[in-house]
Amino acid sequence: MSFEVVDKAKLPYIYTADELISMFLTAYAREEARGSTAEPAFVKQKRLEIRRIVTSGKLLASTLRDMALRMPFLDKLHPFYRELIDVVYGAQVYKHAVAKVGNAHIAIKAIAKEAITAVRTAADKSQLYKARKMYQARVIDLLRDLAPELDKLREVVIYLRKLPSVDPTLFTIAVAGAPNVGKSSFVRCVSTAEPEVAEYPFTTKQIHLGHIILKGDKVQIVDTPGLLDRPLAERNAIERQAVLALRHLANVILFLVDPTPHSGYSLEMQKRLYDEIKTSFEAPTVAVVNKVDIATQEELEKARELFNPVAHISTLNCHGTREVVDYVLNKYYVPLALEKLREIRRRA
Ligand SMILES: Nc1nc2c(ncn2[C@@H]2O[C@H](COP(=O)(O)OP(=O)(O)OP(=O)(O)O)[C@@H](O)[C@H]2O)c(=O)[nH]1
């Protein structure tokens, strides 16, 4: 099953209810009288009124429809994004808001149709005036009633725009570990270009998102500051779910260990975190010992016993980092890529 990914460029601008009301009234007032001067004034006025209703109604209906259609369709969205939206806003609340805004365009059309009938059957100027007032009042009421849903969608769009541009369809290496162990340094060392820096929800910390280009193929590498550095039990429900949304992103978790007292976290604490991550995620976890440039033999030995690491590196000078990536890709990415290729050949 293929999932959709949030395309920030395609997210709509969500108007507030007040902006829509002002757009509606401006469009209404913009229409001016046209047609033959020989026409009786009342007939001319009726025709102008109808044109005003049609123009303002159409503009409003298409704006509402467009906003709803361009919001991500939750059921088709990749689980990484779907879970994040669910955690922050609630899937039902989101779906309800999109549906209400989308359906409002049908209601606007119906109101406009009734208003046109009222104008056509108006016997005199006062009835015409009443029809206009009624039309405007009903549209404005409907838009005011839509205000909470419009505000909700506005919040979601702002939230999605701020999310790092992770592509959940790419093979992803998530770099985990206690604070200060060298996660962002690692991402910088192995990324083909300068990593993107963005904020991950629920953390005040910045996430580094890098890419590794492999013979035309692209692999994603991301650090997880503030996300995987505390046991799940110590987190509130929202944080816990945000961590779990990572489940859908990581194909392999690289756990960096700092064997020195430099990061301020003991090896025992790092081991507890390592065990927690190993049991909470389906993705395989690979331990790597960092900061070998300052670690003592004794510290390295202790880390080796506890973590059985696949490599010793230093992200200070990027020593050994490329080899770690090659190891991970050979072990976890190449078999997947080959399997994909076989699948394509089977289908061909
Ligand atoms: N000596 C030495 N210092 C390192 C090495 N790798 C990182 N550091 C230092 O450790 C500190 C933390 O490095 P970061 O890459 O920011 O660590 P982090 O794990 O991303 O930190 P958080 O974002 O707080 O989770 C910095 O002062 C780095 O210069 C290393 O291999 N050797």
TrEMBL record:
Transmembrane segments: none annotated. InterPro entries: G_OBG, GTP-bd, NOG1_N, NOG1_Rossman_fold_dom, P-loop_NTPase, Small_GTP-bd. One of its GO terms (molecular function) is GTP binding. The keyword Nucleotide-binding applies. It comes from the Archaea. Residues 171-348 form the OBG-type G domain. It holds the Pfam family NOG1. Keywords: GTP-binding, Nucleotide-binding. This is Small GTP-binding protein. It comes from Pyrobaculum calidifontis (strain DSM 21063 / JCM 11548 / VA1). The lineage of its organism: Archaea, Thermoproteota, Thermoprotei, Thermoproteales, Thermoproteaceae.
